[in-house]
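Hi V.,

Quick status before I head out on leave. The structure for the redesign project is tokenized and pasted below; the design run finished overnight.
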């Protein structure tokens, strides 16, 4: 799957699984840069996703009676929920043209990596050094033919704790990957992985950038 296409697994989910998908996408929207500015009026808000989730939960419970009309009502609500998620996913894909970072942490369930993705190697010769401007750093790594984009995460705390990592940037050129918004007064850790249309590869070992 191309890196600028949101997974549409929600279209084939059970009603119960769709409840979780609606909640996950709604929770991710406030921290996704795609929704930090003006959003088209036809794109569902997080509140709208939570509202349809609550309605779907009610309709699911009502349909347990096997009443035909209640099952139809549940199915209709499920279709409405899918339509709202279609609008959100389309908007994220549109925004990813100018900012690839919006594709990450969007709340949608990703497709399982294909077997082809297992051939993506660990990036080699990953290095990071301070940039010329305050709060910046520059990274580089050996070229990989299979790579389409390069994703860098940064951690300010213990790099062995997964929760300390956050995405910093996505690049198409591995020779000079400029990062900004860094607290270079602290010791920072960086890791790198490559992505292509089949999925993502494994992380590089963490690289340390000492305070400037």
């Amino acid at each position: 799957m191309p890196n600028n296409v949101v997974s549409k697994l929600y279209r084939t989910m059970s009603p119960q699984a769709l409840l979780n998908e609606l909640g996950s996408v709604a929770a991710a929207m406030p921290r996704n840069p795609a929704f930090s500015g003006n959003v088209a009026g036809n794109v569902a808000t997080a509140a709208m996703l939570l509202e349809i989730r609550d309605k779907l939960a009610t309709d699911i419970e009502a349909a347990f009676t096997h009443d035909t009309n209640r099952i139809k009502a549940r199915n209709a609500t499920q279709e409405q929920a899918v339509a709202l998620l279609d609008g959100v996913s389309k908007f994220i894909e549109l925004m990813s043209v100018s900012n690839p970072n919006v594709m990450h942490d969007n709340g949608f369930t990703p497709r399982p990596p294909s077997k082809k993705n297992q051939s993506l190697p660990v990036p080699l010769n990953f290095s990071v050094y301070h940039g010329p401007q305050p709060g910046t750093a520059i990274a580089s790594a050996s070229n990989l033919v299979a790579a389409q984009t390069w994703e860098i995460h940064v951690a300010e705390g213990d790099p062995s704790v997964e929760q300390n990592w956050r995405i910093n940037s996505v690049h198409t050129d591995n020779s000079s990957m400029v990062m900004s918004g860094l607290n270079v007064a602290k010791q920072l850790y960086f890791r790198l992985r490559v992505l292509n249309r089949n999925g993502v590869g494994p992380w590089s070992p963490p690289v340390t950038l000492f305070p400037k």
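Above is the designed sequence. The longest strand covers residues 188-196.

G. will cover questions while I'm gone.

Best,
W.
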